[in-house]
Specification:
43% helix, 7 strands, alpha+beta, seven-stranded mixed sheet
Length: 168
């Protein structure tokens, strides 16, 4: 069964628009996380019951993350770094320490660690600063922008190719 050029063009345009929509959402998500106000996040000041590295379940892949389990909080809070280097956090946070954590509540009930931990403070000093979270989330903005640009280039080349065929 052969599909007409018009139908092919229509399908490709729809697919590019759908993919572009995903890139726009990625950009918006990254942009929203650039000016986080700590007073608008969930906050808990508690004693560290456990800490370390753990494989995160409930997400794509199974990355190793840093986690901290606090008294009076049912969920482990965590941080994912692409470098997977958590030595600074492991040396700064010990069982029995009193810390304050700022985080976004996770909607994913299947995950074993909520990696939306934005900032950790110990003795009034930020051990994990919100700027690290913001920088990590800003990559979504770049992915969104690059994806949209790539889609525009793909569409332009495809349109040029189709236009050339119809002129001949």
């Amino acid at each position: 069964m052969k599909i007409s050029n018009t139908t092919q063009h229509f399908i490709i345009v729809i697919l590019l628009l759908l993919v572009s929509t995903l890139y726009v959402f990625a950009f918006i998500a990254g942009f929203k996380s650039q000016n986080i106000e700590l007073n608008k996040l969930h906050k808990i000041s508690s004693i560290v019951e456990n800490t370390g590295e753990i494989v995160r379940v409930g997400s794509k892949g199974r990355p190793k993350v840093f986690f901290v389990k606090l008294a009076y909080l049912n969920k482990k809070l965590g941080v994912y770094r692409m470098s997977r280097n958590y030595n600074d956090l492991l040396s700064e946070i010990s069982i029995g320490d009193s810390i304050t954590a700022y985080y976004f509540e996770s909607q994913n009930k299947r995950e074993n660690v909520n990696i939306s931990l934005v900032q950790i403070e110990k003795n009034g000093k930020a051990i994990l600063e919100k700027s690290e979270y913001q920088n990590k989330e800003s990559s979504l903005m770049y992915i969104g922008i690059l994806g949209i640009i790539a889609n525009i280039i793909i569409y332009y080349r495809f349109y040029k190719k189709i236009h050339k065929k119809s002129v001949c």
